[in-house]
Specification:
By secondary structure, this protein is mostly helical. The protein is built from 9 helices and no strands. It has 2 domains: about 50 residues, Homeodomain-like (Arc Repressor Mutant, subunit A, Orthogonal Bundle), CATH 1.10.10.60; about 140 residues, Tetracycline Repressor, domain 2 (Orthogonal Bundle), CATH 1.10.357. Helix content is about 75%, strand content about 0%.
Amino acid sequence: MARPRKQEQRRGEIVAATARLLVDRGMAAARLTDIAKEMGVTPASISYYYPDLIDLYAAAYETATTEYTELRRARVEESVGARERLLACLQLGIPERGSESFDATLLLMELSAVGTREPRFGVAEAEFARVQLELLEQLIAEGQAAGEFRPRFPAAHTARMLLSAEDGIAPSVILELTSSEEAVRMMSELAGLLLDCELAPREDGGR
């Protein structure tokens, strides 16, 4: 009984080490030998748990998306009021250096290039998109029921437009072409237009 738990723990350690390398140094520095060096073990020790490096990348992607989704839901639940809950959701979608979402966004960007060519990423990618869209639709529906939002389009379409805009602007923030504050403002303005409401970010960024 102890062995399976130990193996699961070891897999988690390997995934965590891989994620650190991807965030700190990028895909080129997260090869099998790099991961083994980071953990102080032999490459064979890594291959024992992940014979195919792509499977390890896929595990890192799935872990990152799960943690990101949990964080986003928690941030929403901390807020009260339809506008506040939606704004909290949108703010977490914009990476800010030093924040909880920055490393996750950077990691997903690094892995996305691999994922577009690997069907093994497909299930995790589809689930990640589904839960984010579901959360946005829920928040839009809550605001509409409360009379605070007047959606110009069906909730599903609005959610998809907001998520697409977020996916488009996040890389610009990571590359420091757009500031986090400016990105949050743009997302808030877009949501306000789509939902016919005032949705202004808080002065502290809500972080």
